[in-house]
Write a structure and sequence with these properties.
With 372 residues, the protein is mostly helical. The protein has 16 helices and no strands. The chain is 63% helix and 0% strand. The longest helix has 35 residues. It starts with a helix and ends in a 20-residue tail after the last helix.
């Protein structure tokens, strides 16, 4: 009897209280939405709505007069996009020239600024270095300085009689006219070997209205000066990211590898560098996004000249909309640039995935446990 009395409450009458399926009570759910609502409204009004309005403008032939949402504005559909890729004309040629210039720009800026940022972080993180605060501030100072002010300073440095050409003159090298020379660097190198004109195989037949010789021109002399400016001003920011990651590397790992007889290069190659992999992909991703959005340096220093060799998609979008008053085409260029950045970001996100763990198959490929 005593046993029945003790066991009955635990089996029959004592049941756990029923919980809400979502794990959140109704009043807490409402309170959460009330707290988030101001941010949603602000982002919707000042981010999502302007993007949708710009998308509509890219489908019209709006010239900037009046409102683009009236019936007087012609609707052209995808014509603004087709002119950039499919139709022969000045619009496609300028856009592909801008893409070519930006590809060379990205191909040089991103690797160099990443390597330079890592090198500066390793120097500043050295335990034996004195005056770390001074060097951190000195390396980071260009990143917080106005890009317009630095661009004006670089205009004087790379002038025909500027400091850069005078320094080259001391070495017996005649400096070029930096912002008036539209020749590509690869063409200049080939010219040193006697190749001054395009070979017959490269003179025509290139994609999107440009010959292979034009695609393989390399960055121009003017674009090279802009590349030097951007690398100098952006490496400090990425140095701080690497420095924060280096300070989180366990000292015990470095000491254990030293006891195992690893050299300094081996410790960096097999211990430090793998631990910096997430930071490296973050730096590369941010560098790619920022490189495709370059505008202010081009606007101040060259405005796409000489011979459109410093023209970039971001500046071309601005010039098409606000100077040529073709807001539809300008918005279309900006959305194509937005798509390029999204694809590159997704590509970097895929590379950032950790492949050391077991791979997860798709849901229809997963094995069903036996006996189920």
């Amino acid at each position: 009897m005593a046993t029945d009395t003790l066991t009955t409450p635990g089996t029959a009458s004592a049941r756990p209280p029923r919980r809400h399926r979502g794990g959140i009570r109704g009043n807490e759910n409402v309170a959460g939405w009330l707290f988030v609502a101001p941010v949603i409204v602000i982002l919707g009004l000042f981010l999502l709505l302007p993007i949708l309005m710009a998308l509509w403008v890219s489908l019209t032939g709006w010239n900037g007069q009046g409102s683009p949402f009236t019936g007087d504005v012609p609707f052209v559909g995808g014509d603004n996009y087709s002119r950039l890729f499919a139709e022969d004309g000045l619009a496609r040629r300028d856009f592909m020239t801008a893409i070519r210039n930006n590809v060379y720009y990205v191909g040089i800026v991103v690797p160099v600024q990443t390597a330079l940022a890592l090198g500066l972080a390793l120097v500043v993180n050295n335990r034996l270095l004195r005056g770390k605060g001074f060097f951190r501030s000195a390396f980071y100072f260009p990143s917080v300085t106005s890009s317009v002010a630095i661009s004006v300073v670089f205009l004087f440095l790379f002038a025909n009689s500027g400091a850069v050409n005078r320094l080259l003159g001391l070495l017996g090298i005649t400096g070029p006219e930096w912002f008036a020379d539209g020749r590509g660097v690869l063409h200049l190198l080939l010219g040193a070997f006697g190749v001054d004109s395009a070979p017959a195989a490269l003179a025509s037949g290139g994609p999107f209205g440009l010959s292979w010789w034009e695609w393989l021109s390399g960055p121009s002399v003017a674009m090279t000066s802009i590349i030097c400016l951007v690398i100098w001003t952006t490496s400090g920011t990425f140095m701080l990211m690497y420095l924060a990651a280096l300070q989180n590397v366990p000292v015990a790992l470095d000491e254990a590898s030293t006891l195992d007889g690893a050299s300094r290069w081996q410790r960096f190659r097999y211990v430090t560098l793998p631990l910096l992999k997430p930071t490296t992909f973050l730096v590369v991703t941010l560098g790619l996004i920022g490189s495709w959005q370059v505008f202010d340096q081009v606007y101040v220093m060259s405005q796409g000249n000489p011979a459109k060799t410093t023209l970039t998609p971001a500046y071309l979008s601005y010039r098409t909309a606000f100077r040529d008053f073709d807001y539809g085409s300008g918005a279309a260029i900006s959305f194509v640039l937005f798509l390029i950045i999204i694809l590159l970001t997704l590509f970097q996100r895929r590379l950032m995935a950790d492949r050391d763990g077991p791979r997860r198959g798709r849901w229809w490929r997963r094995r069903v446990p036996e006996g189920s």
